[in-house]
Amino acid sequence: MQLTAPAILLAARAHGETAVIARMLTEQHGMVAAYVAGGRGRQLRPVVIPGNVVQAEIRAKSDSQLPFARLELVTSRGPWLGEPLPAAAIAWATALTASALPERNPYPSLHAALGGLLDAICSAGAARDWVAALALYEALLLRELGYGGQRPEIANLGQALEILDRQEPLIGRYLLADTRADVLAARHLLRQRLARMIS
To answer: Which domains are delineated in the chain?
Structure first.
């Protein structure tokens, strides 16, 4: 395996003293996990933040070997991690994607939709401007993996929140049933913060 491509960083798990195992979503190759040497070091720590867009150079000697990756930052989501709602939304969208998608299966529509969602979260003036995009992304993910129906029609914020609530049991049952970590905890935190926004 040898590829160079832009990728959305979905997750970074500590490995050894300074390395990380990064999970990245590429348009043509789907989700790829790779070893990033020095990923927890001073230079790369700001790069391996979930939600960041990176230019990834990924190499492996065989398909059974965990690839090595060199990452270069393209777009940082770091400035939004200090804002409670955007930080919670970025954490949920990336954790859900990292947990639900199988490795090395391309999903170009999900790659484009996740990129658009993250851009919306980071450029919107308020959460009410991106909640519908989040609900549509979850619905697309369910549909792409064979668990959803039609694209929902969303007319207002209340309807977007209703759809988020309706989709949670499906996500828990079908997309996150085999996960060891409680990925839904990130969703619950986001939903609590959204509830405070409209109360």
So the answer is: 2-76 (2.40.50.140), 79-198 (no CATH)
